[in-house]
Amino acid sequence: MYDLGMRKLFVVGAAQLGGCPGLRVRAPAKECDARANDLAARYNVAVASILDDMSARHPDFRYSLFDAATALLQYIRKPQTNGYDVVDAACCGLGKKNAMFSCTPASSLCKNRTNHIFWDFVHPTETTAQKLAALAFAGSPPLVIPRNVRQLVM
Question: What local confidence, expressed as pLDDT, does residue 28 receive?
Answer without folding.
Answer: 83
